[in-house]
Amino acid sequence: MPIIRPKLSRRAFITGIGGAVVALPFLESLLPRGKEARAAAERPRFAVFVRQANGVAQADGDEPERFWPSALGPVTYESLTTTDSDRAVAELADFADKLLMVRGTRFAFPGNGCGHSGGGNQCLTAAKVSDMPSGNLSLAMGESVDNRIATALNPASNPDPLTLYSGRMAGYINEVLSYRGPKDLRAADRNPWSVYTKMVGINQLPEEIAARITARRMSVNDLVREQMQSLMSSPDLSMADRDRLQIHFDAIRDVEVELLCELPGADELAAMEAQQDYSGADELMQTITKMQMNLIALAFACDYTRAATLQIGDGNDSTQYTIDGEKLPRYHQISHRIYSDGSEGDPIPDAQGKHHVIDREHAKMFRHLLERLSMYTTDEGTLLDDSVAIWCNDLGAGVSHTYKNVPWVCAGSCGGFLKTGQYIDAGNVTHNKFHNTILSAVGLTNGQGEYVDDFGDPELEPGVIPEMIA
Predict the structure, then answer these.
(1) Under a CB-based contact definition with an 8 Å cutoff, are residues 121 and 127 in contact?
(2) Which fold has domain 44-191+281-468?
(3) How far apart (Å, rounded) are the C-alpha atoms in residues 357 and 353?
(4) pTM of the model
(5) Residue, of 3 and 236, whose pLDDT is higher
(6) Domains of the chain by residue range
């Protein structure tokens, strides 16, 4: 049976018709025999950053707190469903013991003519904002944290992080998150089918076979069915591993069904977006967001990449959300509290309440990612336990466009490194320390073999956030 097992990775593959290569999920039965050999096998850690725009409805100036829990300290299902049920993070109650919420970090550098662009430049880089270009065209002067992880931990055959996007690109500010280096912004992939075909290798298959898969006359699973059956019947495979394989293959089929039945092709999607108004594109965006999240979970389960980003909406996201049957004004205008993208306009009734409702909607989408990561099991828990999923923002709050108290909501302990079930205040530190902690959690070290302390601009104070570490 053609199973390829790299010596120092949990990743294994099966090869089928047309040279199709399908990566397998974690299988305990395929680990090396013996305690020393098993200990030597690398246990990968993963990080995904899901970015929301326009800040959150937290305490800021005269505005009340509607985002964070009411008190620092332990976070429980009971606290999120009773005392803090009116807070946005209450939507994550089912994962309370997996959460690490971090307030009290700030972006160190000013924007250059546009608060949204400057925040997006710094969010995952902790780097300065470019002098030229400036304004809404400004760029980060350093690499992003997802790039650092992927460069260090991904296989040489796939050195890039998974960089995804959902929503309209209106042209004022589009992608903001992933940087290879100074002013080197990585384009995000908006088309889930394109992402999927790259991951499973359909785009490398003979044209006839690829066409049959695209037309739903064949699944990727069909290409490796004989190898799958042989592996499933192996006496060396435990019942738990058989269950993991079945979940994995079902997930592949589910992704194909979702993509092919609910979304048009890439050309049709682009043409439709070019002709439709905000309403049509916005209604599709939340579906694409969940599909992209499904692909992130599948990519981690296959060890396709160790890092991913998902940007929801463009730089000053003007999505019109429809929530509980109500179509809201443009999100960016809600964050300004007026019917304007500038500083003057008629007030939006209960704009802070509408912002809170959108925060909860983002929390629900983030919860979908956590559910998907939890679907995959390992010998020690779930894929979520091997990962850290991070819900982040490129502003602290919308009205002030503040770079202070930028929210970070983490889920997953990254193999026990992070202290979960907690809500902490980092003490108004620059957010490079947050990223240093995440880089250390996935297994990276500095030049002395200790926690990473040098991410971001070299002028920033080095170090981690000790309160995040278990």
Answers:
(1) yes
(2) Alkaline Phosphatase, subunit A (3.40.720)
(3) 6
(4) 0.84
(5) 236
(6) 1-39+192-264, 44-191+281-468
